[in-house]
Amino acid sequence: MRKKGILITGASGEIGDALIKNLAGREGTQIITLDLKPLAAGNENIVTHVTGDIMDSSLLARLVSEYEISTIYHLAALLSTRAEFTPEQAHRVNVEGTMGLLKLASEQSQWRGEPVLFIFPSSIAAYGLPDLEVKTQFPRVREWEWNYPCTMYGCNKLYCEMLGIYYSQNYRQLAADRPVMLDFRSVRFPGLISAFTVPSGGTSDYGPEMLHAAAKGEPYACFVREDTCIPFMVMPDAIEALLKLAETPVSALSRRVYNVTSFSLTAAQFRELVLRFFPNAKISFKPDLQRQKIVDSWPAGLNDHDARRDWGWKPEYDLERSFAEYLVPNIVSRYRSK
Ligand code: AKB
Asked: Which pLDDT score, from 0 to 100, does residue 43 have?
């Protein structure tokens, strides 16, 4: 008999780290994690970790021979800045890697006679607004608006959303017998901020970088202009969104890809807040024109009406609470204990 389990790919990344801590506390859930890197300290004893590549099909075959996988949280990806340096490699990991896991989930759904749940974090990078004037005219974009990403990462996310929907609704649509299809669900996240990890390879990283640098007493030169505005969310809310979407009955979902958001602010407002808690912080602005162009193409805010209506989404942390109750206390104690 195969053991039942949940698979998390990209488990050593920022979202993976927080998701493991949350899921591992739930009774009766065996978690198998997959990443090229070892897990963050403290996580290795609570899950079964496999160090390996999502592109390794024999490794995936071995995993399904050992485990009956009911849910996949597919987090592995090369983020937007990193992907621009190696676009073809990003395409391989972000698209072909996702395709391999969708295939695995679809075979497993057929084999079990029950859909495998496939949870996929997408991103504001799936949007692409042509200029700042349009960005101002559309302050809270809906899921179907401005789907014209300008980055390889954004293109990859948008296309993988489409693939996920195809595998959930139309896979083998001309076959005589309709297969049991997987159950794909995705959230488009804003920039994420964790108190415990510093992101790498993203273009929304200026927010968390500014805060972590201030807490460490290091100077920081922000790579976007002061008026740059995008939405953000703290990690506990991001995890809550993934889990809440995963546990909602499929009949309640009116779509498979949902915007979720918490608060929007400019880089100057971000700096002001950081200075409120770390008055000696040295934060300057030194825009990198190429990275600026990417962030300018992302919306200033997301409209998450459908997530609120269909599965009761509501962030626990607004801007004030995010800083005062989650980010600052945890970051301070993190660097104090180092
Ligand atoms: C990135 O900056 O690439 C990510 C994202 C917005 O998805 N943080």
From this structure: 87
Q: Which residue's CA is the nearest one to ligand 1's atom 4?
A: 202
Give 30 Cα–ligand 1 centroid separation in angstroms.
Answer: 29
CA of 122 to the centre of ligand 1 (A): 9
- Pocket lining for ligand 1, CB < 6 angstroms: 79-80, 123-125, 153, 191, 202-204
| CA separation, residue 273 to residues 13, 45, 68, 265 (Å) | 26, 37, 47, 10
Ligand 1 atom with least separation from CA of 205: 2
Task: Pick the atom of ligand 1 nearest to 82's CA.
Answer: 3
pLDDT of 312:
98
Distance (Å, rounded) from C-alpha 283 to C-alpha 211? Answer: 10
Q: What is the pLDDT of residue 63?
A: 94
What is the distance between the alpha carbons of residues 129 and 150, in angstroms, rounded to a whole number?
9
Q: Which amino acid is at 313?
A: W
Compute the distance between CA of residue 314 and CA of residue 318 in angstroms, rounded to an integer. Answer: 10
Q: What are phi and psi of 60, to 5 degrees?
A: -65, -40
As given in the structure block, the two tokens for residue 241 are 């969104």
Look at ligand 1, atom 7, and give the residue with the nearest C-alpha.
123
The amino acid at 95: V
Structure tokens at 160: 């993988």
Write out the H or E segment, with its range, that includes residue 63. helix 57-66
What is the rounded distance in angstroms from the CA atom of residue 91 to the CA atom of residue 283? 35
Of 14, 75, 78, 80, the residue with max ligand 1 atoms within 8 A of its CB, to mutate for a pocket test, comes to 80
Query: Which residues, given as ranges, of the chain have pLDDT below 50?
Result: none
